[in-house]
TrEMBL record:
Its main location: membrane. This is DUF2179 domain-containing protein. Keywords: Cell membrane, Membrane, Transmembrane, Transmembrane helix. The chain crosses the membrane at residues 7-28, 43-68, 75-93, 105-126, 138-164. It is a multi-pass membrane protein. One of its GO terms (cellular component) is plasma membrane. The keyword Transmembrane applies.
């Protein structure tokens, strides 16, 4: 096993621990079944008192076997490790942990954040803890329903069960946790270092390009375009800048060409020369 693989397994381990922590100190004590296999295991725990970690393992085994059949053997090793790590951590932590809050809103928010960080780490290091993503893949394989819709169906069923066996209020908080978890996963996957992407259409593109290069020490990419209404040839500049540079660029572009057409959009991640190194 090389250094890269060791780091990946350490990342999956850390992520699994955080997910287990979110379950044992926020979600399970407050009966928040936030979708997926862990949510289903939470419902089963309150009905039967059967350990959550073992329940997750039992549910995940047939899902894993079906996943290997569909996606091949290469899918298997990290998934086994992720499933086992999460199950073991959950059952080891639960007897020694107590709820940090009895407030359902706080529990749903912090459970979503901590669990989302954990899942984000697992995904970032090319792992999986089984559960919802496996269910969604199986739904997609057997029915043709998209993975996104499959995730919604799987989580929706678990939240509905929580509403039936617990109460509607708890189910609504579970939906809050699912939303926060998904947003946190995106942050961990994409990072917080957001950039701004600029598309600048101007008859003075050369001067604007020179300003970007000289004043901001940034580079641009130029496209040849044609106006759809006028049919005139246009030059379009693409530039990636930091959020702090947006006001400066807008003022500078307006000084050069007050009729320039500028589109500014959020860019969640930029890979390549001058930005984040591409990780293989």
């Amino acid at each position: 096993m090389n250094k890269k693989n060791i780091i990946e397994y350490l990342g999956i381990t850390a992520g699994s621990f955080l997910i287990a922590l979110a379950l044992t100190v926020f979600l399970v004590p407050n009966r928040i079944a936030a979708g997926g296999v862990s949510g289903l295991a939470t419902v089963i725990y309150y009905i039967t008192s059967f350990p959550i970690g073992i329940t997750m393992l039992i549910i995940n085994i047939p899902l894993f076997l079906a996943g290997v059949k569909i996606m091949g053997k290469s899918f298997g090793v990290r998934t086994i490790y992720g499933i086992a790590s999460l199950s073991i951590f959950t059952d080891l932590l639960q007897p020694h942990m107590t709820s940090l809050t009895d407030d359902l809103l706080l529990a749903s928010i912090y459970g979503g954040v901590v669990g989302g960080i954990g899942l984000g780490l697992v995904f970032r290091f090319r792992g999986t803890t089984g559960g919802t993503d496996l269910i969604a893949s199986l739904i997609n394989y057997y029915t043709g329903i998209s993975v996104g819709e499959g995730l919604l169906i799987a989580d929706g069923i678990v939240v509905t069960l929580a509403g039936i066996f617990f109460n509607l209020e708890v189910a609504l908080y579970a939906a809050v946790t699912i939303f926060i978890t998904s947003q946190t996963i995106d942050v961990i996957q994409e990072g917080l270092n957001f950039k701004k992407g600029l598309l600048i259409i101007s008859d003075k593109a050369e001067e604007i390009n020179q300003m970007v290069v000289d004043d901001l020490n940034r580079s641009t990419t130029e496209f040849a375009a044609k106006g759809g209404y006028t049919g005139e040839k246009k030059r379009v500049l693409l530039c990636i800048i930091s959020r702090s540079e947006v006001s400066e660029v807008k003022r500078a572009v307006a000084d050069i060409d007050k009729d320039a057409f500028v589109i500014i959009s959020n860019v969640h991640e930029v890979l390549g020369e001058g930005f984040t190194e591409i990780v293989r």
